[in-house]
Amino acid sequence: MIDERDMAHCVAAIKHGSRSFHAASRLLPRRLRDPALALYAFCRLADDAVDLQQEKAAAVLSLHERLDLAYRGRPRNAPADRAFAAVIEEFDMPRALPEALLEGLAWDAEGRRYEDLSGLRAYSARVAAAVGAMMCVLMRERRREALARACDLGVAMQLTNIARDVGEDAREGRLYLPLDWMREARLDPEHFLDAPAMSPELGGLVARLLREADTLYHRAEAGIAALPVDCRPGIYAARLIYAGIGGAVRRGGHDPIRARAHTSGRQKLGWLMLAGVRAGGSLVMPHSALYYARPLPEVGFLVDAAAADAVPARDWSDTLHSTLTGLKARDAARRDALKRGGSPAIAAE
């Protein structure tokens, strides 16, 4: 059971930091809304801890400790940690799912770039599809097909966010566009980061990324229609609101440099209403064959971890352990360089 004061803190954090999800959550049933908001609040905390701090490796290592404490039933004395620990206990949350999120944030801390779409999907699987799989756990929906479609939705949302934020990310030194796409378009990644500028070639890459997202939104709808009936409106709303962000990018000429695309409160209200209509229609429409489509290769490990027949993991995954070990080494080198009066940037190379 989540403490009321901790829950109030989580609601405030989401209302401030993720307006799109906060809007969609209004259509979730009460039994799901509170744990979902607690989950998103912890994920938001984790994301901000890495994005907003200069010492990103140290931030990820701190999150590793906080997640471990939550799974031990001794969360850090903070509202989001206590609320998430309660969610872990009540829903028997597979540890591999928040581990995947942490690994994605560790990749951010490394400044990792992605050679191709598969690499970008692998990143999106960790920072977004893992959250979709955790939402399925909260709905007590553990069928592999439903989990695969939830992961489709998570990856689609992340690709949409990346398309919207190309300019903002570039100004912060981050680049998520597939490098092979950039080479095909004759865009030099380093030159682009040095001087982010709109061009027809960049617009084409943004449009291409949004088309990939649209394909996954379409696949995801088949899964939403198979969720518990009272959960469908809220998840349809999330799908429509995030796809609407992609629509705003298109209306802006696929230009993420000059302005960050946004949607209005009136638009969100319209999508909430449409979500109710879609949910009602799902009661009478036949199931789509897309429901049975195979998971994206990059999300298969999430489906395996969350499925009803999964074997619970007791230890941190080997890949996460390897990533964290590398971060610890980089953080130690940085601290040593600072003590010696050297450059932390050089130590991190």
Folded structure, characterized:
Helix 1 (4-17) crosses helix 2 (19-25) and helix 1 (4-17) packs across helix 3 (30-51). The chain is an all-alpha fold and 349 residues long. 70% of the residues lie in helices and 0% in strands. It is globular and about 65 Å long. The mean pLDDT is 92. It has helices at residues 4-17, 19-25, 30-51, 56-71, 79-91, 96-110, 117-138, 144-164, 166-171, 179-184, 189-194, 200-224, 232-251, 265-282, 300-306, 318-339, 344-348.
Supply database-style keywords.
349 residues; mainly alpha; 2 domains; 17 helices; globular
Question: Summary?
Answer:
The protein has 349 residues and is mostly helical. It has helices at 4-17, 19-25, 30-51, 56-71, 79-91, 96-110, 117-138, 144-164, 166-171, 179-184, 189-194, 200-224, 232-251, 265-282, 300-306, 318-339, 344-348.
Number of helices: 17
Q: What would the principal axes of the Cα set say about the shape?
A: globular
The fraction of residues assigned to DSSP E strands is: under 5%
The average pLDDT score comes to: 92
The oligomeric state is single chain
Distance between the termini: 46 Å
Second CATH tier, the architecture of the largest domain: Orthogonal Bundle
Low-confidence stretches: none
Structural category: mainly alpha
User: Remind me, CATH topology of the largest domain?
Assistant: Farnesyl Diphosphate Synthase
Helix fraction, binned, reads over 70%
Count of structural domains? 2
Main CATH class of the largest domain: Mainly Alpha
How would a crystallographer describe the biggest sheet? none
Order of helices and strands: HHHHHHHHHHHHHHHHH
Q: What is the CATH superfamily of the largest domain? A: Farnesyl Diphosphate Synthase
Number of strands: 0
Q: What is the CA-based Rg, rounded?
A: 20 Å
